[in-house]
Amino acid sequence: MDDQRDVISFLSEAESYGKAGLTLERLETHISMVFLIGDRAYKLKRAVRFSYLDYSTAARREWFCKAEFELNRRTAPALYLRVRAITREAGGNLAFDGDGTVLDWVLEMQRFAQDGLFDRLAEARKLTPELMRELTAVITEFHAAAEVTRDHGGRAAIEQTIGDNHANLLESCPPLDSHQVQRLYAASMLKLSTLGPLLDSRRDAGKVRHCHGDLHLRNICLFEGRPTLFDCIEFSDALFCIDVFYDLAFLLMDLIHRDLHDLANIVFNRYLDLTADLDGLAALPLFMSVRAAVRTHVLAAQDRQHPSRRTSGDAHAYFSLASSLLCPHPPCLIAIGGLSGVGKSTLAHELAPGFAPAPGARLIRSDVLRKRLFDVAPETRLPPSAYETKTTERVYRGLHEQATASLAAGYTAIVDATFLQKEERTRIAASAASSHVPFIGLWLEAPSEVLAARIGTRGRDASDANLRVLQQQLKIDTGPIGWCRIDATRDLATSLPAARALINRFCEGLRSVASPA
Questions:
Q1: Which domain holds residue 266?
Q2: How do beta strands 53-54 and 226-229 pair?
Q3: Is residue 515 situated within a structural domain?
Q4: Same-domain check for residues 103 and 126
């Protein structure tokens, strides 16, 4: 391996940057060092070689520095500034971009506040639903623009990763239990046996792209007020030329591991609302399990080198998560109806994270689906013409189709719409019957003055309903409603426990829908 001692010494001195007197900080991982000074960060790749990565020579580090620069400028052009050479000059001193012999290469980056990292924000409980929706929009835009590749991905790629995980997990027995490791491998391969054709068809359809590859909270920061993806994988095409759902699965798994089920459910549903990529749903549990298994063996290897109670505990927690994500759970279909302003969407959002499999129920909202039909963002206002009868019929047909697809993938579906017409209620109940799952209809009620007050105080939301719309709804004869009625006059403190009790009573065999940990 190249000797980097002189380069590290050079980068460890503030004078090397022309900033004598400023404090210099150094962050280290097993593959890189980052030197922080002033408003800049300088990233040096270590001269190391692993089975999945080779930075052993200066020439290779140059190539990978330039690859990292180009790939990360797709999502963070303001962070990645340039690639710089470190040279040895005639007098023996080292310099940036000098005329002497090139010793090594570094990435020069714009420095950002470490408390803006999303893992730090998660630890401080500062990740908000709105911030996660913004992050999801960033991810969907990135995936939509990412280059398609059909040379990677599909069943073979996931099978290879499962096999690699298994071999590495066996090396960690003990402290991991070898019988449990064997069971995880068997469950993963069984799941893959049913998903193989789907994974191959997604690759052929262009769903395998040049993704991020390492999309967890520590590689996302809040920069200039916007969620920013950085530090993507550059050293292995096989690790970043992946299914877009496998890319997303790392973020979802990370949130679930941190017990942020509500935020994981927001990202999950927002991604589907923006992309309509429903056919990937069935693969998501396996994708998240594989991601958790990768984290398990990485942490187990770290613990062997530097034993730590925290590292060992995290490894066991990830392994437990990898196993639990593959457990089957019978889904159900829940429809929530009522007039505008009654609190359907609020209740649905609170219920959704509590269902298995992770990251919770698929939320299918008529207001969002209508915006999808017009190819606009959920919060975009539509003109009255968008609410003509023919369009509304398309919306309710879409509710049925999305619910059926979600149930077929093994996910509980929560459908949120007014359901003012008997035919609409009959159709959604038939969706459950045709899918052979339990159905429960919840009908929320509140006085008209309460509904009007709530509509008047709405902020940014997918619903276009105003007081005029409410007045029109109040005149509709809904006919007999056989759904379970819930008094929504007060806040969620009353309606949420009532809804959970009803769902648990009707959907036997499901795990409790109490608040997730």
A1: 118-324
A2: unpaired
A3: no
A4: no
In this prediction, residues 364-381 reach a mean pLDDT of 92
Spell 163-186 as b/e; 16+ CB within 10 A means b. ebbbebbeebeeebeeeebeebbe
Amino acid at 19: K
SS3 406: helix
Mean pLDDT of 361-370: 95
Q: What amino acid occupies position 347?
A: L
**Looking at the domain assignment, is residue 43 inside a domain?**
yes
Q: Give the pLDDT confidence score for residue 507 in this predicted structure.
A: 67
| Whether residues 196 and 286 fall in one domain | yes
Q: What is the CATH number of the domain that holds 37?
A: 3.30.200
Q: Note the Cα 441 to chain centre separation in Å.
A: 29
Looking from the CA of 129 toward its CB, the CA atoms found within 13 Å total 12
Per-residue pLDDT tens digits for 439-485: 999 999 999 999 999 998 877 788 888 888 989 999 999 999 999 99
**How many domains are contained in the chain?**
3
Tell me, yes or no, whether 514 lies in a domain: no
pLDDT level of residue 508 (50, 70, 90 thresholds): low
If asked whether residues 337 and 249 sit together in one domain, one would say: no
Are 487 and 343 members of one domain? yes
The mean pLDDT value of the chain amounts to: 93
Tell me, yes or no, whether 394 lies in a domain. Answer: yes
Q: 159 — alpha (psi -120 to 50), left (phi > 0) or beta?
A: alpha
Same domain (yes/no): 308, 423? no
- My answer on whether 235 and 261 are in the same domain is yes
pLDDT 10s digits, 239-297: 999 999 999 999 999 999 999 999 999 999 999 999 999 999 999 999 999 999 999 99
pLDDT of residue 116: 95
The reply to whether 191 and 93 lie within a common domain is no
Number of residues assigned to the chain: 517
Q: Where are the beta strands (DSSP E) in 292-374?
A: 333-337, 362-365
Three-state SS for 42? strand
pTM comes to 0.92
Burial of 24 (0-12, 13-18, 19+ CB in 10 A): middle
- Give the per-residue pLDDT at 510: 45
- Measured CA to CA, the distance from residue 487 to residue 494 in angstroms comes to 8
